[in-house]
Design brief:
Blueprint: H1 2-19, E1 40-46, E2 52-57, E3 63-69, E4 87-89, H2 94-97, E5 121-128, E6 134-140, H3 154-157, E7 160-166, E8 172-180, E9 185-194, E10 197-198, E11 217-225, E12 228-238, E13 245-250, E14 272-277, E15 286-291, H4 298-311
Antiparallel strand pairs: 1-2, 2-3, 3-4, 5-6, 6-7, 8-9, 9-10, 9-13, 11-12, 11-14, 14-15
Length: 322
């Protein structure tokens, strides 16, 4: 089957990119995460100057007041224009204004949030700014180990909090299930877009790490699979340059050298799948969730092949086009 042949060509590249996420997933370079994790007492305030003030308590008990400003939405990928990014003042205004009291006198102008429903929304931490734009915090476990392993390092269980600021519609994550390898395996493929343009980066490490603020990983989870009950992280793969597309097959894989076991991991198709992505630029994180596939059906497979060919137009890795 033509589709199976194409996917077979792309799979080793994708496995390599996921494999060297290693003990933690590749470093994220945007939508943007705070360096501290597992935060408590999170609060968000926004003023009329385009600034946000995020207050939180770290695991060591210290409370920080972080001033955030300087970015909204995202830029479409360009090798000549940097991706948007926030500026941060972890001293609550001292770094920007040389005022130790700035955070104490911060004039909150937050209006009730009217934007779209958000994935992993931090309770009470989303609002509308005076200019009509939205600010929000999202908190989730991005750095889970891959291939269904239970976390064995503290960083793998940490909850990251991401801050976003946007005025345009959210990114669109299009995903479909399919059968691969002549119906012997199950896979996922899709495309990530924002503003009608694909989301992708221009460079990465040989092991799949992100080196461009345009890069975005697709975090793939499988539910009630050979890995065990509940959601388990399967992979983390970059969208492809120029197309924003990706593909993955649930096949047996050997664990990575830094993992606690080197026994072969089973293929782990599940009852459900989800794909989570950090928003491009400083836009919110998004997610797709869909059901698993039943027994191979050749007639339905023809439809998946047709959709795959449409989505993968121009993708040199998954579709093999040059």
């Amino acid at each position: 089957m033509r589709f199976a042949t194409r996917l077979a060509r792309c799979l080793p590249v994708l496995v390599l990119a996921a494999a060297f996420a290693g003990a933690a997933a590749p470093a994220a370079l945007g939508s943007e995460p705070f360096p501290d994790t597992s935060l408590k007492n999170l609060k968000l305030a926004v003023n009329a100057r385009g600034e946000a003030l995020v207050t939180y308590t770290r695991t060591d008990g210290k409370t920080l007041h972080v001033l955030v400003w300087g970015a909204v939405d995202a830029n479409t990928p360009s090798p000549d224009v940097p991706q948007v990014r926030f500026k941060y003042d972890y001293a609550g205004g001292w770094g920007k204004y040389h005022s130790a009291k700035y955070w104490k006198t911060f004039k909150n102008a937050c209006a009730p949030y009217t934007g779209p429903t958000l994935l992993y929304a931090t309770p009470g931490a989303a609002c509308d700014a005076p200019d009509g734009s939205h600010w929000a915090l999202q908190t989730w476990q991005r750095a889970l180990p891959l291939l269904g392993f239970d976390p064995w390092l503290p960083a793998q269980t940490a909850y990251e909090t991401h801050i976003s600021h946007w005025s345009a519609p959210l990114a669109t994550l299009k995903v479909s299930q399919n059968w691969t390898y002549n119906g012997s395996a199950v896979g996922l493929f899709g495309q990530y877009e924002w503003g009608g343009a694909p989301v992708y980066g221009f460079s990465s490490t040989k092991t799949g790490g992100t080196t461009s603020r345009y890069n975005r990983n697709m975090y793939i989870d499988t539910y009630n699979s050979a890995y065990g009950a509940g959601w388990k992280r399967e992979s983390g793969i970059l969208t492809h340059k120029g197309t924003g597309t990706f593909c993955h097959s649930f096949v047996a894989q050997r664990p990575f050298p830094d993992y606690p076991s080197q026994s072969m991991r089973p293929a782990a198709p599940g009852k459900q799948y989800r794909v989570t992505a950090m928003g491009p630029g400083v836009t919110p994180d998004v997610q797709w969730v869909g059901p698993g596939l039943g027994a191979f059906d050749e007639r339905v497979d023809v439809q998946y092949n047709s959709l795959f060919d449409q989505v993968m137009t121009g993708d040199r890795i998954c579709a093999g086009e040059r």
